[in-house]
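Researcher: Go.
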Amino acid sequence: MVSTRLDTRISRLEQSLDATEHLPWTPHQWQAWTEHARVDALCHLPPELEGSEDTALALKSCLETLSDMALSAVIAALTPVPPGVTRELALKLDPETLRRWKEELAWTW
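Model: Structure:
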């Protein structure tokens, strides 16, 4: 992933101001939050959030403002380790564990 400066990422988010009308926050609120608060907000989106192209664009803009570490936290929170797979074995790159995880992800993605 190519690194982009935080101020550039925030600028892109502000340019998408019109698209954020369906999100539960504004770009200015988003900018003021810590990364932890941003991750928390993305992981707890309301189920009634409108699934439009504008909403997708706004969410993409938000994701682009996150550091790689925060983005990894969002992905991990939204795709938890499936039953029977342990983080320890996955981190050791155990082939059977990775195969099981891949098969489980195929059903959810």
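Model: Residues 95-108 form the longest helix (14 residues).
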